[in-house]
Structure formats: structure tokens, C-alpha cells
Model the fold of this input.
Amino acid sequence: MKKAVILYSGGLDSTTCLAMAKKQGFEPYALSFAYGQRHSVELALAKQNARTVGAVDHLVVEFDYRKVGGSALTSDIAVPKSGVESAIPVTYVPARNTIFLSFALGWAESLGAFDIFIGVNALDYSGYPDCRPEYIAAFETMANLATKVAIEGKGRFTIHTPLIHLTKADIIRQGLALGVDYGRTHSCYDPTLDGIACGLCDSCRLRLKGFAEAGVSDPVKYV
Done:
């Protein structure tokens, strides 16, 4: 089995992505981040469930991105709850996927892996620029220019985005077919102190819409 690094937050998309990588015959090495995000509910689930959902190993990288700020997820800016916005919302974290993929690239090179999975989506999402196909293609090009193993011809890095052209409902359907337990995932940007999803932020609205369109109930609790 080939090794693959999976960006794994503990959320719906990344958990489905990990299940897809495993189904494709990869050994999943899950990579999560404690970067000073607004809450730790999602990360706690990632730590608790990584091996349960099929990860061979689980690495948690810690750094404090609150020092950069610029996002409702890394500062005291209020999380919007009036509906999914058409413009790029304040929940966008500056350069986050570039940073996450860079760590994934470094770990992949160290592991001798040439495959990286990220659960970005360009349909039912909040309009983040680092979730688009052209961004992923540009990062993949950079990865093969910037690494020792690629320059030496030992392999070529591929950034896999199996969810990128799927609706949230399609993601959920495929995840359920793979046996994903969505009760072990969390998507809310602004949960209660008890970890209960707000039901009103962009992420909650998109998740609930996906479950409704898939014709199944979301197993997580909402306020």
C-alpha cells in the first residue's frame, strides 16, 4: 500500500476524504493542526477518532496563528450567522491551506509518500480562494519544483481533491457508503462551551443543507 498524507481536521469533509483515500488503497497518515483556532471541539474529535476512521498514524502540528489574525476563526471577530455570504467571509483564514499543505508536503517527503489528500470543495463552500482547482494545481506544480525527492526524479507529488466538484449532499452520500460515522465529526465555527453546533454559521448551514438534500438526518446536536 502506498502512503498518503491526509489533511484531517475532524470535520465532515476531511473525514470523508480520509475514508476515500483508504478505499483507494492508500495508507492514510492523518495530519491535524492546533493553530489557535476559535475552539478545540473539532481537533478533540480528530485526536479521538483518527485511528478509528483508519489512520495509520496521526500527527498534530501546533503553532499560534492568532498572532497573524485577520479571521473570525483566529481572533475576536464575530462569526457571521445571517446566512451563507456571496463574498469571501471573515471566516477565511489568510493563507491557511497554503500553510497546511506545506506541512503536509514536508511530512510526505519525510515519509517517502507522494500523495496528499485535502478535502477542499468548490461547490457547496464559503468561497475561499484556496479551495479552487486552479489553486490546487498551482500548489502541486510548486511541490514538484521545491522538493529534493522530486528534483532527483524519485517521484512526483499529487494533490488529491476527491471532493472538489461534489455537492455537500454527494459528499455525505459517498461517505455513508464508505461507512463514515458523521456523529464523530464537527463542522461548526462557533459552538457552545459544551461543543454543541450553533446551526447558524456558514459551515452549519452548508452541512445541514447537505444532509437535507441527501435525505438523511445529521447525527450531531444543534442549539
Notes: Helices lie at 12-23, 41-49, 96-111, 133-146, 148-151, 168-177, 202-214. The chain is about 35% helix and 10% strand. The longest strand covers residues 26-34. The chain has one domain: 2-186.
